[in-house]
Prior knowledge:
This protein is of the alpha+beta class.
Amino acid sequence: EMKVAVLKKDVATAEAEAAAVDLDIRQAKSPATGVIVEKYRDVGEWLKPGDPIVRLLKLDTLYVQGSANAAYFEPYELVGKPVKIQISLARGRVLEVDGAVTFSNPKVEVNGNFAVRATIQNQKENGAWILRPGAMVNMTLQIDQP
């Protein structure tokens, strides 16, 4: 009876471990952090691999899109250069954030400008992100004039 009890315990332990593994592989986990802005599925719904569940908005690092005039700058000259970003907030507040150019498009558009993208770190105020994607900002390149 003792051997049977030990074997039953081993079987129960193996079943519990198998259930834990089963549960782990059926959980949806995201390698990215962010704020859920849209939910496509509810708890308990069956999913297929690749089915969208939620839409995440990554808010800790943001990109600022702008343009530079090709008559004054070569695209390669701007990558890594510091920028100042001014953001207008609610109630007339203005926030200034430092960033850096992380991409400069080599393609010059018809208007003589080329696209420039800077990366900035978002900040929190009272536990909420201050800067929001889609907001209009003013970006100023911080470069030495020849």
